[in-house]
Each structure stands twice: as structure tokens, then as C-alpha cells.
Write a structure and sequence with these properties.
Blueprint: E1 22-24, E2 30-32, H1 33-40, E3 52-53, H2 84-94
Antiparallel strand pairs: 1-2, 1-3
Length: 102
């Protein structure tokens, strides 16, 4: 089950379950769109993968009990600010490698 983490790991901006600003990698590392574009350069600092928009979990029980009330968002914050020099080195190493090939 996707965790729906509550904040951006870098800047700690709130990313509630309905946020269209949340981005995740395949390991569910969660960042805001501003950090993914402006700080990370679409390179996850934890795994080197790329990011996609995080899906929004339905609030309404449209079918089968699959909704936010039954499967709530995480509450534990993972605030791990990215070191700019380390991220720049990782971005440089992966420059020219598309996310789907990392």
C-alpha cells in the first residue's frame, strides 16, 4: 500500500493526501514538485531514480472499501534535507541517463 507520506523530505512542506504537488520515486521517497524540479533535478537523492506525480487516494468509497478513511495517509515525517554538493555530484554522475534507465 502506497504510504502517502505527509511532507517533502527536503523542505518539509506539507503534502496532504490530496496534494497534486507530491512527487515519488519507485521507493516512495516523497518530495514536493518545487524541490524535484529546482533542487533535485528529477534525481532521487536516496536511490538515483526519477520521480512521478504521487496518486491521490480516493476519499469516497467508490468500490470495495478502497478509500482514504480505510487506508489513511502516513503521519510519520521523514525530514532529510539534501546536501547540495552531494546532490550536484549525483546529478552529474547521472546526467544524460533517462530516469527509466537508471
Amino acid at each position: 500500500m502506497l504510504q502517502l507520506r505527509p511532507t517533502c523530505e527536503h523542505c518539509n512542506t506539507a503534502l496532504p493526501p490530496e496534494s497534486l504537488d507530491a512527487r515519488i520515486c519507485s521507493f516512495e521517497c516523497t518530495f514536493c514538485a518545487n524541490c524535484v524540479d529546482g533542487v533535485l533535478g528529477n534525481v532521487c537523492p536516496n536511490c538515483g531514480g526519477g520521480f512521478v506525480p504521487r496518486p491521490v487516494r480516493p476519499v469516497t468509497d467508490w468500490k470495495g472499501g478502497n478509500h482514504l478513511a480505510r487506508y489513511p495517509a502516513e503521519t510519520a515525517v521523514k525530514h532529510r534535507p539534501v546536501d547540495p554538493a552531494t546532490q550536484a555530484a549525483l546529478r552529474e554522475r547521472l546526467r544524460g541517463v533517462p530516469p527509466e534507465q537508471r
